[in-house]
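FAQ: What does the model actually see?

It sees only this:
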Amino acid sequence: MASELIPLNEWARRRYPTKPPHINTLRRWAFEGKIFPKPEKHGRSYYVQEHARYVNDFNDPAFLEAMRGSSSPQ
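And it is asked to produce this:
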């Protein structure tokens, strides 16, 4: 079953509770494909799966592990 989509700023508050990134940073990450699984844009807003992760380097072992885990049913 697919995860429910949540607004990008809500995802940031959950992922980084003490100091979430600025909304402009979040939008840039979404636009540049640095959030996996990729956020969906609905109108002017981005929505992401709750378990999404920030990925700076697509060769990073953490990203490769997330890719392997994304294909398994939840």
